[in-house]
């Protein structure tokens, strides 16, 4: 197996500037790097990140799942930034909610219950 260094989830968008502004709002900062025209990257934890890339042909068809430490805190923080989440769904062993970017890509936030019944 190859030795991996980093992992990035790629979210294709139609309007790169609008998407970058939207991601900046909920992530809370400018991209960590913009390696080429039409691409913006944020490191979100350890060696994992999000990449927003201008690609109108595949825009709006991606989903990324981010595991969070506290789903209620995440939803509250996002609401404070003007980003509304869908309802929190409780499956006992996990709770989840999602947001949808301007291109239609889904970002799902998942909290894993450490002691499911």
UniProtKB/TrEMBL annotation:
Domain of life: Bacteria
Keyword Lyase carried by entry: yes
SUPFAM superfamilies in UniProt: Glyoxalase/Bleomycin resistance protein/Dihydroxybiphenyl dioxygenase
A GO molecular-function annotation: lyase activity
Alphabetical keyword list: Lyase
VOC domain ranges (all copies): 5-112
Protein's recorded name: Enzyme related to lactoylglutathione lyase
Annotated organism of origin: Amycolatopsis roodepoortensis
């Amino acid at each position: 197996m190859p030795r991996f260094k980093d992992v990035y989830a790629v979210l294709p968008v139609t309007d790169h500037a609008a998407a970058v502004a939207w991601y900046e709002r909920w992530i809370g900062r400018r991209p960590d790097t913009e390696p080429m025209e039409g691409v913006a990257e944020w490191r979100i934890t350890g060696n994992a990140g999000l990449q927003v890339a201008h690609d109108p042909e595949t825009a709006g068809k991606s989903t990324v799942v981010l595991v969070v430490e506290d789903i209620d805190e995440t939803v509250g923080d996002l609401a404070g930034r003007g980003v509304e989440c869908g309802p929190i769904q409780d499956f006992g062993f996990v709770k989840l909610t999602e947001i949808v970017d301007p291109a239609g890509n889904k970002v799902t936030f998942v909290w894993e219950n450490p002691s499911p019944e």
